[in-house]
Each structure stands twice: as C-alpha cells, then as structure tokens.
Amino acid sequence: MTTTTALKRFFEGDVWYSFRTSPVAILAAIIAFVCIFAAVFADWMAPHNPFDLATLELGDARLPPAWMEEGNPKYLLGTDGQGRDILSALMYGARISLFVGFASVLLSMLIGVSLGLLAGFFGGRLDAVLMRICDVMLSFPAILIALLIDGVGRAMFPDAHEALAFTVLILAITLTKWVDYARTVRGSTMVERNKDYVQAARVIGVNPLRIMTRHVLPNVTGPVLVLSTIQVAQAIIIEATLSFLGVGAPPTSPSLGTLIRVGNDFLFSGEWWITVFPGIMLVLIALSVNLLGDWLRDALNPRLR
C-alpha cells in the first residue's frame, strides 16, 4: 500500500470523520499543537533565552505582565525573581516536560506491551508471576514509587550530570506506568489467542514469537493507543509534581513544575504571574491531551459509532 493510498483511506475513514465532526477534539488538537510547536521550536520562537545568564538583567526582575501598570512591553507575561522572561521560560520549560512525558510513556509502552503479550499468550506460571508483580506495583501510590526511585537515584549519584538526572526521572515515571499497559494488553491477548486465525497459525507451525508480533500485536494496539494518549498527560503531571517537590528536573533545566515551585515563593507577595502562567500552561497541555485521549477512545470503539 502506497503512502497516498493509506492517506486517502484515512481521510475517508471513520476516525477522521469523527475528528472533523467533534469541535472539542479539534479545539484540543489546536491547543496541543500550539503548545508542542512552541516547545519544540523554543530556540527560534522564544523572545529571550531565559537560561542564558549573560542576557539576564536583575533590574528587570519581578516585572508584571505588559498590560499592567508597571509592565514592560519587552516582557509580555512579566519576569521572575531573576529577570527571566516568563513567556520564554514557559516555552523552554514545556519542552522539558513534554520530553520527559513522551519518553517515559514510550518506555512504559515498550515494557508493558512486551510483558503483557508474553503473559496473555503463554499464560501459566509466567502469567501468574507477572500479574502478581503488577498487583504489588498497583498497591503503592504512583507518586510514592516515583519519589522513592528518584530519591534513590539522586542519593546514589549526588553529582549526577543533567542527562543522568533526566534518565532517573524518566525511569521513575516508567516504573509507575508500565503496569497499565501490561494488564490491558494481557487481557486483549487472552481474547485474541483463542481466535481461529491464531489457532490456524499454530497448526501450520508458525513460530510463537511471529504469531505474537505479526498477528496478535496489531489487533491489541487500539487500547494501547488510547491508553498512551491519556498517560502522556499523567506523566507530565507526575513530572511536574516531582519537580514541584524538588526531586524532578534539575534547577539548571527547569520544567513547568520547577517554574511553578519557584513562583510559589512569590505568590503571596503579589507576583502571581510567576506561578500562575506556568500553571495555566501545564493545565492546557494536560487537558488538551486528555480530551484527545477521550475522543480517540470513542472513535476507536465500534459500539459508539
């Protein structure tokens, strides 16, 4: 199938029709696209580089947004306590939050889908052991596990480089999210493994690994896509929570959660914009992704068509 044919089938399909007839999905997609585009291209779109110490002016610290009485048109959303432009900081901070969110979800998906396929296809002791591990993981709050892993990683590597700090953060979120994929894929695989096409492949001697990857996996990806969309927003919120608690992104590369934590120190002294605007940005990203996940769940559910 050529790319042109695939695109034609997509634009003539039910999913695209469901999208273009849903105002909520369109609005959520626009908001998500704007946020992601601004984050990815922050180097070119941001008015200033908020993390270049040579360009910071302490005399411009804690300026209100441009439309307020003491605002400066140079800083549309105001500045923080170090004179950093809030709008630019939002773009750079969103990039870090999105990177951590997408990376942790991709890793969670890889681990969870693989283990779920194995457990659902082979069953027996392997299924029992993997599901008991999932039960143990689910018995602890996700944020507690993330705090524990992140705290242990920072204790073992107190002078860790930025890349290692982000790796620990991504692993901490991954360990709280792979269970959902494993349980979802395991349930779908247990249904698919008893269908005729799988039994026929077994009869003619097809390798079990090939059956799982070529036949079963494509038929269980629907729920995985919906779950991954929703979990991107959850991962971003967990990262923001960890950063707000001081165990997330390093201070040299602050995420939205770090910006909220820094702005919280100025909230009661009247500089509300330092924490409110990062909070709004976080809410917009999480809400738009969640709404897209809800739409995708309904669009892929044949019972709702």
From TrEMBL:
Keywords for this protein: Cell membrane, Membrane, Transmembrane, Transmembrane helix, Transport
GO cellular component, as recorded: plasma membrane
Protein name, per record: ABC transporter permease
Primary localisation category: membrane
Keyword Membrane part of the UniProt annotation: yes
InterPro entries linked: BP-dependent_transpt_permease, MetI-like, MetI-like_sf, OppC_N
Subcellular location: Cell membrane
One GO biological process term: transmembrane transport
Keyword check for Thylakoid: no
Organism in which the protein naturally occurs: Caldimonas thermodepolymerans
